[in-house]
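Archive transcription. Copying these from loose printouts into the bound notebook so they stop getting lost. Printout 1 of 2:
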Amino acid sequence: MPSPILTSQHESILEIALNRPEAYNAFDLDMMVMLGDALALLGIGVFGGIAQILLTDSYRHAPASVVAPFSYTSMIWAVVLGYFIFNELPDAIVLVGAAIVVGAGLFVIFRERALGINRQKEKEAATPPAGPPVE
């Protein structure tokens, strides 16, 4: 299994490759970047990279059904930070889409958990008891 750092590196390279034309058009080389802005961007990159590495590594230590709900908190953070930083609220269509995504994710989580419990019961029933034979 590849390391989480290598996986995150490949994801970053792919994102840069796919977004390259937009990045070149959006960035004006004549624009002067202030030191505070540069430090903020650097901090976002560093902490975002660390978060991606930790999230990727978390799938090695826990089942996906346990880790996946934590990714839904990013939607909550986006709404909260968008409101407090940019004074914006999402449109109704965004909230409907988020509810569909979260609902589908929760359905899969509960279904997998129920199937996992049933699989565990079937496995226990099919496995002979351990220990010396009883006479």
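Printout 2 of 2:
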Amino acid sequence: MFFPGLSGTVTFGRVAAGGAVSLTPEQLDEIERGCEGLDGVAEFGTLREIVDAEQRYLAFLIGVQRHRIDAARIKSLPKSWRTAALRLAILLRIAVLLNRGRSAAAAPELGISVNESSISLRFDDDWLAANPLTVADLERERAYLHEVGYALDIGTD
């Protein structure tokens, strides 16, 4: 059984916008009773706290996809998740910028290297010259990432 000690049938609550399923507080309590002793519950205290933290994580990833990255959003996450969440958000932001044309043919060949606080992107000279709007977006992204302690280097092979 997926949740040891869980008896009966757990039915899901309402389906929220976008198809996300939410559980009622009673259902969370019942699942939590079946999860006693699991590491995640021990770290956060309750299953409800895990669900809340995961919802904040998803909200963070969605909420930082446009414009500046709000440091307050990062601080809403559990400390152990912050670095990974910010790095994932940065990668998603760059992927969106590079997928401007939404076409596989338009995707550039890309060299990428990363370290603790920087990302280096390397493009073909011709691609950079042919895509000035994407270059401008990447330059703006460089400024946004600098605000949260990351460097973005954009160059050619």
